[in-house]
Amino acid sequence: MVKTDIESFKEFVHKHPELIKEVKKNKRPWKEVYQDWIVLGEEHESWNQYSKDKKKQKDKRSSSSQKMRAELTIGDIIAGLSNLQINDVQKYLSQFGSVMDAVQELLQHFNNQSDRPNQLPENKRNDYPSYKD
Fold first, then answer.
1. Is the pLDDT reported for residue 127 higher than 70?
2. Do 56 and 97 share a domain, yes or no?
3. Total structural domains in the chain?
4. Using CA atoms, how far apart are residues 10 and 81, in angstroms rounded to an integer?
């Protein structure tokens, strides 16, 4: 029987109970945790803080992180990136583009306001005639 990604992820989560607590406290959504797990893999050092065996992980961390650094190749990075959902990436990029457009419009608006003095429009100036004594 071949394990699916979901089954492997469930096993991973059960090995990291602190991660479950963090999600239950609404600090992170499950989708984000799953995406990080896909990209980073199970052995990434960032998961050590959520593990049952924090002490054992600290000992393993130094030796395994040195191995990971030595063994990480371009192929590994590409494989991790290929697991990303293209639709999600496109959605995030379009949302980012929309946010950037809005920020740019806002900055232009403020720049235009600071370039001209605070004056009433021409048609409003005549509504308030000045009286001379």
1. no
2. no
3. 2
4. 21
Tokens 């639709």 identify what position?
87
Which residues span the domain enclosing 51?
A: 1-84
Residue 26, judged by CB atoms within 10 A of its CB (0-12, 13-18, 19+), counts as exposed
12 and 73 inside one domain: yes
Nearest to 62 by CA among 48, 83, 72: 48
122 found inside a domain: no
Whether 28 shows a pLDDT value over 70: the answer reads yes
Q: Which amino acid is at 19?
A: L
In this predicted model, which residue has the larger pLDDT, 15 or 75? 15
- pLDDT band for 55, please (50, 70, 90 cuts): very low
